[in-house]
Design a protein that fits this description.
381 residues; alpha+beta; Beta Polymerase, domain 2; cca-adding enzyme, domain 2; 3 domains; 7-stranded mixed β-sheet; two-stranded antiparallel ribbon; 9 strands; elongated
C-alpha cells in the first residue's frame, strides 16, 4: 500500500528524507501524517523516524543547507526546517524504564523497537519517501482500515507509562474510531481501572486534550464512553455527556466549538480544571448565565450579539432536549442589529440617579417586549 498527496512529494520533505537516506540511514514518515494520509484526511505535522543519532541529524542538516533546531535532543528529536516547513526528526527509541511522563529511553537501530513503544497501533505506521507503507507491528494497517483504536501491547502498560494516554484514547476514538462498533473493550477497561491517574496530570495538558476531543465532528459517542468508564468524572467532576448528542444534532453543520460543547457538559470547576484562557472563560460564563426561554432569541441577540446568542440557544435547546423555534436565527440577528432608541439624556433633568436608571430599564423592557418596534417618541409618550 502507498500513500499519496502533495505534502509527501514537496521538495522540502523529500530533501529531508534524502538527506538521511543518502548518508546510509533509514528514514520513514511516521505517525499522524501517515495515518491521516491513508484516511484521506488533512496532514498537519510531518514526523520522521530514523536510525541516525541526533548529532548526526544536526550535522547532516547543516551540510544539506537546512536549519536544524535541537528541540528535544535528549529524547532524540531534532526539528529540521526546510523551506520554513518544520520536520520533526526523531531517532528510533526503545523504552528502558517508564514512570509517568518521565521515561528512560535508549536509542535504537530497529524500526520494530520504535513501533513497539508507540501508543496506538494506527499510529505505528511508517512510510518510505515514495509512499510505500510499512507496518512493523503487522496490526496497525488492519486496525486503521477497521477504524479500531487499540493500544500497542498491553493497554495497562501503555497507560501507566503516561496517564494522558487515557484522554488521548478517547480523543482518537472520537476522531478515528468507528462509533458503530464502540471502543476496544480491553482499552476501555484499562482506562476505567486507571481513571484516577487523570488527577496527576497538569490542567494545561488536560485542557489541551479536551479541546481536541470536543472539536471532533461528533465527540458524543466517545464522551458517553468516558462517562461510563468513570474518566469524565475524574476530568470534569459532575459533568455528564447526556446533552452532547442533542447539541451535535442541533448544530446541523456549524463548525464545532469547544466552549459551546463544554457548556452542555456541566459540572463544577470547568475553568479551573482545564485552565481556560480569559477569552474562553468569558464565552463560557456568558453561555452559563444567559437566561430566558427558547422564544427569546431576539432579546439574546440584543444582549449577547448574534454568535453568542446562537450558542446560548443551542446549549439551552440541547439541555432541554427541545427543538429550536422556527426563525430563531433571524430573530437573533435582528436583535443583534437593534439599537435601543432612548438615552439617559432623553429623561434628564426630570429624572436623576436610581430613578433614572429604573426608568431606562422599564422603557427598555417595553421596547424588547414590542420586538424592537416601539420608536423613541412612542416610548417617551
Amino acid at each position: 500500500m502507498k500513500i499519496t498527496g502533495e505534502w509527501i512529494s514537496t521538495p522540502s520533505t523529500q530533501k529531508v528524507l534524502h538527506m538521511l537516506t543518502s548518508a546510509g540511514h533509514q528514514a520513514y514518515l511516521v505517525g499522524g501524517c501517515v495515518r491521516n494520509a491513508l484516511l484521506g484526511q488533512p496532514v498537519a505535522d510531518i514526523d520522521i523516524a530514523t536510525d541516525a543519532l541526533p548529532a548526526e541529524v544536526m550535522a547532516l542538516a547543516r551540510g544539506a543547507g537546512l536549519r536544524p533546531i535541537p528541540t528535544g535532543v535528549a529524547h532524540g528529536t531534532v526539528t529540521v526546517l526546510a523551506d520554513h516547513i518544520p520536520h520533526e526528526v526523531t531517532t528510533f527509541r526503545r523504552d528502558v524504564e517508564t514512570f509517568g511522563r518521565h521515561a528512560t529511553v535508549a536509542f535504537s537501530a530497529l524500526i520494530e523497537e520504535d513501533a513497539a513503544r508507540r501508543d496506538f497501533t494506527m499510529n505505528a505506521l511508517y512510510a518510505r519517501a515514495d509512499g510505500r507503507v510499512l507496518d512493523p507491528l503487522e496490526s496497525g494497517l488492519a486496525d486503521l482500515v477497521a477504524r479500531r483504536l487499540r493500544f500497542v501491547g498491553a493497554p495497562e502498560d501503555r497507560i501507566r507509562e503516561d496517564y494522558l494516554r487515557i484522554l488521548r484514547f478517547f480523543r482518537f476514538t472520537a476522531w478515528y474510531g468507528d462509533p458503530a462498533n464502540g471502543p476496544d473493550p480491553d482499552a476501555l477497561a484499562a482506562c476505567a481501572t486507571h481513571a484516577e491517574g487523570i488527577t496527576t496530570l497538569s490542567r494545561e495538558r488536560i485542557g489541551a486534550e479536551m479541546h481536541k476531543l470536543l472539536t471532533a465532528p461528533d465527540p458524543a459517542p466517545a464522551l458517553a464512553s468516558m462517562e461510563i468508564s468513570g474518566v469524565l468524572a475524574q476530568t470534569l467532576p459532575g459533568a455528564t455527556a447526556r446533552a452532547l448528542a442533542p447539541l451535535v444534532h442541533l448544530e446541523a453543520g456549524l463548525k464545532p466549538d469547544f466552549i459551546r460543547r463544554l457548556a452542555v457538559l456541566g459540572g463544577t470547576g470547568q475553568i479551573e480544571a482545564l485552565r481556560l484562557p480569559t477569552a474562553e472563560v468569558r464565552q463560557l460564563e456568558a453561555l452559563q448565565t444567559a437566561t430566558g426561554s427558547l422564544e427569546d432569541a431576539g432579546t439574546l441577540g440584543y444582549r449577547l450579539g448574534a454568535a453568542a446568542a446562537r450558542d446560548a440557544l443551542l446549549v439551552r435547546a440541547a439541555l432541554l432536549e427541545m427543538p429550536l423555534p422556527e426563525g430563531w436565527t433571524e430573530a437573533a440577528n435582528r436583535g443583534a442589529a437593534a439599537r435601543f432608541p432612548i438615552s439617559a439624556a432623553d429623561l434628564m433633568p426630570a429624572l436623576q440617579g436610581p430613578a433614572l436608571g429604573q426608568r431606562l430599564r422599564d422603557l427598555e423592557a417595553r421596547w424588547l417586549a414590542s420586538g424592537f418596534t416601539l420608536t423613541r417618541d412612542e416610548l417617551l409618550r
